[in-house]
Amino acid sequence: MQPFKALTGIAAPLDRSNVDTDAIIPKQFLKKIERTGFGKHLFHEWRYLDYEGTKENPDFVLNKDPFRKAQILLARDNFGCGSSREHAPWALSDFGFRCVIAPSFADIFYSNCIKNGLLPVRLKPEEMDELFAVADFGASGLIAVDLENQVVGAAGKKFRFQIEPFNKECLLKGLDQVGWTLQYQDKIAAYEEKLMAEKPWLK
After folding, report:
1. Most CB atoms within 10 A, among 25, 85, 177, 193?
2. How many CA atoms lie within 13 A of 99 on its CB side?
3. What pTM did the predictor assign?
4. CATH number, domain at 88?
5. CA 198, CA 194: separation in Å to the nearest integer?
């Protein structure tokens, strides 16, 4: 998992509330267990005018330059609601997003983002309004996200955000929960060896 420390980039403004996981990655594309290859189907029903995905919808934000290469996604309330499919953050990451900023997220989606190296940032609705205004400038409206200092910066303003210390540490180090546990593999092995020596009947 790629560590996340700081990022400055273009932000794609998706000015919608209650974006569910079926909109993020429709169910018909959930046919793989790998984490890659889902980016081309991200927001499929909004990005394309045909089922096959060969005709782009020119009005959708990700089909416009410079947002095709955006690494930050701006959204509104309750982003990632619906099912618990982990494919949603997979699709966002595979497209190229490293961070999603919104006033609120569905709990399971938020957790899935952390476990897959995608930083979800909660900001106040009025702060989001300011970021959307900056994003409308496109390539000249860059937004900076600093996880170490827990700050989002844009147009000379800074907005602080909260994140649990454990989640922050995992993202900074590029570790999911399994990877975090493996940091202590030597201590775990030593404990098991000691336990077996003291209680050999457990073997």
Report:
1. 25
2. 26
3. 0.89
4. 3.20.19.10
5. 6
